[in-house]
Amino acid sequence: MVIPDEAELRRRVGLLSLEQKVRLLTGADFWALYAEPEAGLRRLVLSDGPAGVRGESWDERDSSANVPCGTALAATWDTGRVEAIGGLLAREARRKGVDVVLAPTVNLHRTPYAGRCFECFSEDPLLTARIGAAYVRGLQRSGVGATVKHFVGNDSETQRMTVDVRIDDRTLRELYLAPFEAIVRDEGAWAVMAAYNGVNGSPMTESPLLRDILHGEWGYDGVVMSDWTAAHATEAAAQAALDLAMPGPASLYGPWGDALFEAVGKGTVDEALIDDKVVRILRLAARVGALGDSPSPPELALDAPDSVTVAQQLRDAAAAGFVLARNDGILPLPRYRPGGLPGSDRRLRVAVIGPNAEVARTMGGGSATVFPPYTISPLDGLRTAGLHVTFAPGVVSHLRAGEARAPWLLRPDRPVDPGTGAEIRFLTETGELAGSELRDGATFMWLSGFARVTEPVARLEVRCVIRATVGGVYQLGVSGLGRYRLLVDGAEVLDVTLTPPEGADIAEALMRPPQQLAPVQLAAGQPVDVVAEHDVDSSPFAGMGTLVQLNLVPPHGTDDEEIAAATALAAASDAVVVVVGTTAQVESEGFDRHTLALPGRQDELVRQVIAANPRTVVVVNSGAPVLLPWAQDAAAVLLSWFGGQEYGDALADVLLGDAEPGGRLPVTWPASDEGLPSTQPADGVLSYTEGLYIGYRRYDRDGREPLFPFGHGTGYTTWSYESIAVPADGAGVSVCVEVRNTGSRRGREVVQVYASRPDSALERPAKWLAGFATADADPGETVTVRILIPERAFQHWAGQGWSTEPGSFVLAAGPSSASLPLTARVEFP
Questions:
Q1: Pairwise CA distance, residues 617 & 637, whole Å
Q2: Are strands 32-33 and 472-480 parallel, antiparallel or unpaired?
Q3: Cβ neighbours, 10 Å, residue 421
Q4: DSSP code of 168?
Q5: Would you tell me how many other CB atoms lie within 10 Å of the CB of residue 408?
Q6: 403 neighbors 549 (Cβ within 8 angstroms)
Q7: Cβ-proximal residues to 558 (8 Å cutoff; 6+ apart), any chain
Q8: Strand 575-581 with 616-621, pairing
Q9: What SS3 state is found at 163?
Q10: pLDDT band at 794 (very low <50, low <70, confident <90, very high)
Q11: How far is CA 574 from CA 347, 389, 616, in A?
């Protein structure tokens, strides 16, 4: 794409007054920049996007294709597939009028305790860089900007707004900056987001790393924007190469606007800095087609998020990321039982058990959250696949009450086909009706005001009908921030003011809001009118975010009773699929995890089901590692991540052998929580004392065995590693690895190459990932994959630059970091 040159961009900047230029450096609202017709700039729209492109509203009526989470994409080790997902997200962005997507997240999995691991790709900088670069290519080749985030050191959530992360220079360069360098310098990302946290004493929006590294070393010509509300200083942020303080307007958020205008007037900020920032914003606008006569982005087919084309792409992508960590031969499952009388039902009888089987998690919490047009659960997918399926929840995994849903939640005053959802009424200070909406679901969130209502809103009313399916005590309640009243058939059952935990930021407050419940006795079939009232200005985050969630817990047996029912069902079945996992209160932006154990009594459920029927497949529905103390007793363990809207169908494809479980672990899966880095700061400081030793590097150093090693995963065939060669290659080191499919069906292998330096004069990890490639082969077929190892793979940071230690490096190839049967040497003089 040809964009205006520097001189033309500066000519356009020269047409603007100082006031106009300063105004462009803060958003016009929560998601968009001001239009500036004199410079040819139209309104430029940004949107959250890691798991889908939300657009400017958080509203289920404007649904988004929900793609598999970051760890699921990285688990494919397939850059072509991830680039295609980036292309899908670009089409979604264009469909929603979005110019720049706030993704990908390329922070590392320093520790599985980090609450946002699901949104990041991997513990390894090379894998993160390769997957992140593919994601960026897919977006930007379609004319949509990518925003690489969060620069840098935002590898956990605790005190993320204020924490000062201390990282030694070599670790910073070799691990945490490495993915940003590869994507920004080599791939040409158009935007970078500066993180909330500080690094080595400087908040990232004021850090010298922005100018010294991004501009000075990497020659970056794109926009550096703040994370939302991360900019606090006027002069320091302006001088540190921050270009855009989000969100806006400046009168409500951020330190710029009038304050920056005055700083230029006083001479404490050079106007040339302002001009440079505006040039970068205009360059970004030109790249996405938002600047005057700049080239238009390529035409794209804008498929609906529920189209057959999108569904198939997401279904295939989810299956490609599933990691078959253990299989004693039970998988793939047959569709039919052997034998049986003529005319009898010979379908395989499968007991589907577990709290995540009926309501699966397809994405993590926080800015990665979108409203998909539909979600296919494991139970739905296996039923559709034609098996004889029975179901039992087993236990309750949620530590909190979930949102009200079908079949209990109905819209009010709709006697015929009422639908699942509620009516929202917007009321003014005087109690007059300012507007109303019929909505699906029971969670309603607005950011920065109520876009569809023109008058000021003082109070919300959420009206619905709850209809009992069985008689008993139902727990009804609300979640949110501020004052709420709950009325059931006109009688008040709650009047409560809900406050977030001390020190919680807005993400935690909105993703894990406080809640209050009240018991309501209902007879079978009885409907009741429910009204939840909320005073908008009572929220401590009024103006930034408003949340009302209706909660419902129907009558249910005790965990002991539910486990007993589940084990009886398992014992009577041909095979069992248990789906366990985390909840929205465990993995989300805004807070870290304090335990890696599955919530509730899920471990006990799995053990008892395995005892009742050893033909048990356990599916783990989490975005990051959890402890699996029963793993060696299960016939199969499938790690399925947060698989997006097609999760259930993809799961059925893999369990029945219609698709290969193509994933390999992008993160080491621990056997225990021993020796894992902490996310908890001390006196506001989080020190990365482990240095270079995170993930598999730490296990190697300590001589400990994880549950499943980095890179691990099996498919439905077997492979033999035949030979390795290192032919001369002027562009770097080229490694050729020959592998043979020794199984009975076509399959896919991820060939991994690790480097090591025996007898090094430096402290180094025992090995580190240097390159990888995929191989597809028919039974008995031998294929050779060529893996180019860049020079950087052999270099270390030597204080002022990169250096290669002379001597012999070992390159080892194999199917995982723990299985490397082939080795070769390469010499550096």
A1: 6
A2: unpaired
A3: 24
A4: -
A5: 20
A6: yes
A7: none
A8: parallel
A9: coil
A10: very high
A11: 10, 10, 9
The 10s digit of each residue's pLDDT in 184-211 is 999 999 999 999 999 999 999 999 999 9
CA dist 300 and 289 (Å) reads: 14
Phi (first) and psi of residue 632, to 5 degrees: -75, -10
Q: Which two tokens stand for residue 43?
A: 């309104």
What does the alpha-carbon distance between residue 78 and residue 321 come to, in Å, rounded to a whole number? Answer: 9
Beta 100-102 vs 616-621: how paired, if at all? unpaired
At 372-402, the pLDDT tens digits run: 999 999 999 999 999 999 999 999 877 788 8
Query: Regarding beta strands 223-226 and 191-194, do their DSSP bridges make them parallel or antiparallel, or are they unpaired?
Result: parallel
Integer angstrom CA distances of residue 443 from 47, 367, 422, 507, 659: 20, 15, 10, 15, 35
Three-state secondary structure string covering 381-408? HHHHCCCEEEEECCCCCCCCCCECCCCC
Q: At what angle do helices 6-14 and 271-287 cross, to 10 degrees?
A: 120
> How many alpha carbons lie under 13 Å from residue 95 in its C-beta half-sphere?
19
- 127, 150, 134, 51: which is closest to 695 by C-alpha? 127
Phi, psi for residue 552 in degrees, rounded to 5: -150, 130
d(CA 598, CA 611): 19
Do you find a cis peptide bond into 247, omega within 30 degrees of 0?
A: yes
pLDDT digits (tens, 9 = 90+) for 646-658: 999 999 999 999 9
Mean pLDDT of all residues in 533-555? 89
Helices (H), ranges, 327-390: 355-358, 378-384
The pTM for the full model equals 0.96
Residue at 399: amino acid letter? L
Q: What is residue 543's three-state secondary structure?
A: coil
Tokens of 263: 């700083």
- Interior angle at CA 306, CA 586 and CA 331, nearest 5: 60
The amino acid occupying position 37 is P
Average pLDDT for 123-143: 98
What is the rounded CA–CA span in Å between residue 125 and residue 770? 10
How far apart, in whole angstroms, are the C-alpha atoms of residue 179 and residue 187? 11
**Looking at the annotation, which residues are catalytic?**
227
Per-residue DSSP letter, 176: I
Over 452-488, what HEC string results? CCCCCCCEEEEEEEEECCCCEEEEEEEEECEEEEEEE
595: how many CB neighbours lie within 10 A of its CB?
A: 11
**CA distance to 330, 659, 709, per residue, from 745 (Å):** 16, 11, 25
The answer to whether 200 and 167 have CB atoms below 8 angstroms apart is yes
Query: 731 pLDDT band (50/70/90 cuts)?
Result: low
Query: Which tokens hold the place of 446?
Result: 């607005």
Rg (CA), the chain: 27
- Bridge partners, residue 810, by sequence: 756, 825
Tokens standing for 688?
């990365």
CA 296, distance to chain mean position in Å, is 30
* DSSP code string of 154-221: ----TTTTT-EEE--HHHIIIIISHHHHIIIIIT--SEEEE-SSEETTEEGGG-HHIIIIIIIIT---
Look-up of token digits 């080790």:
77
| CB atoms inside a 10 Å sphere around CB 475 | 14
Judge whether 544 and 503 are in contact, CB under 8 Å.
no
Give the three-class secondary structure for 591: strand
Contacts of 342 (CB under 8 A, 6+ apart): none
CA-nearest of 365, 203, 199, 264 to 25 is 264
Distance of CA 288 to the CA centre of its chain: 24
SS3 676: coil
Q: Nearest 5 degrees, angle CA 588-CA 590-CA 595?
A: 60
E strands present in 116-255: 145-151, 164-166, 191-194, 198-199, 202-203, 223-226
What is the DSSP annotation of 724-758? EE----TTSEEEEEEEEE-SSS-EEEEEEEEEE-T
